[in-house]
Give the backbone structure.
Amino acid sequence: MSTAQAVKIGIAEMEVVIAPNVIRTCGLGSCVGVVIYDAGKAVAGMAHVMLPHSSMARGGVINAAKYADTAVEALAQLVMAAGGRKGMLKAKLAGGAQMFSFSTAGDMMRIGARNVEEVKKQLERLHIPVVAEDVGGHSGRTIEFNPQTGVLSIRTAAQEIKEI
């Protein structure tokens, strides 16, 4: 009998797990944690998205996990390669906080909100429904997803653990 492992992903990384393993990421401020999963197959992937669009990349090779416009599709492909079924995929989101206030809060400084918008746009394009989310606010989050139960646990500073 094997024991479950907690797979940890960092900023601008993505990974896939199959139950009984769980997947987690820490330090979601303006970043968005995107979980795409197939509950029937108990397979899930998570991406720690840092920026909304790959056009913000500077030179060279683009890290698909770093940008919302590239991470969502790449993550969906990884989940399907691990056994997820295209028509059965669902998504949960957390993060996208506005961590700092600016007197000139132009669009460029709304990274959290822009990350959330772009992730949702890409999920909609791929026909993957968002079934739960905990986004926005001003606090960082740590999240963990269990593909066996489909529960996303969210730890936010000075708050109770939330499950969605």
Remarks:
- The first helix runs from residue 68 to 81.
